[in-house]
Amino acid sequence: MLDTGIAVPEVVNLVFFKLVRSKTKFWQMVGRGTRLCPDLFALGKHKEFFYIFDYCQNLEFFSQNPETTDGALGESLGKRLFKTRLELIGGLDRKLAGVVNEGPEKALASFMAGRTLSANQIEFVSLIVEHLTEHGVMDAGLLYESPFTDLNPQGPEAVFNSVQVGALVALLDDVRARAVA
To answer: What is the pLDDT of residues 72-85, one digit of tens each?
Structure first.
């Protein structure tokens, strides 16, 4: 219950799944969505709205008629992630073919194989692919610079676990070694 004593400015979805018949409590709960939150969606993209999902007709009980929308009818997140993974793996075949040799292509494909990667992880790997495509090799220190830190300022450790970071660094070292050889 988001009524008294809580301030979470990041709230953008309020779900009423309980009857509320106290006008004071109702407005306290609605007020949780009104808290301003700068840079919530990205740098310079502040919270400007929130949604109310009312399954118990509390809005009607208090005679509130806010603007409504039908919502977006897009593909599910799971389907979008799956398609992105397929595109990324297919992109590895196309982008890295002939960059140095087949090593980077196989290494990145094997890094992704058997893993369920998040959207940020997929984007991170995609940035590595772009860099390798353009430059042929990549120093692991670049993982701590833009554009990689644009995904997370703390670098790859905030996107991957330590084993995965080690695997990425080893992969980049292997690509460099093969390029020199």
So the answer is: 567 777 788 888 87
